[in-house]
Design a protein that fits this description.
Layout lengths: L2 H12 L1 H40 L2 H29 L1
Amino acid sequence: MSQEKIDAYKKEKAGRKERIEKQKKRKKIAKIVSSLVIIAIVAAIVGSVIYNKFGKSDETAAAADASATEISVELADDTAAEASTAE
């Protein structure tokens, strides 16, 4: 082996432990972060389902349905009026 190859090998060997430790830390951090993200997504989905099932009272749901019906009737009236004026 040439002297350059020997020097390069010694440099690589000298920093090997630190490099391996850094890789292990990065893998551990990546696992932790990905686990937290997955847990947050699952919690958001479960929370949404629970809120939609139990969070709204019957009165609130009825009021929301009534206001949605009023809005759709108003929009239909406006659309019909615009259509008749356009002709």
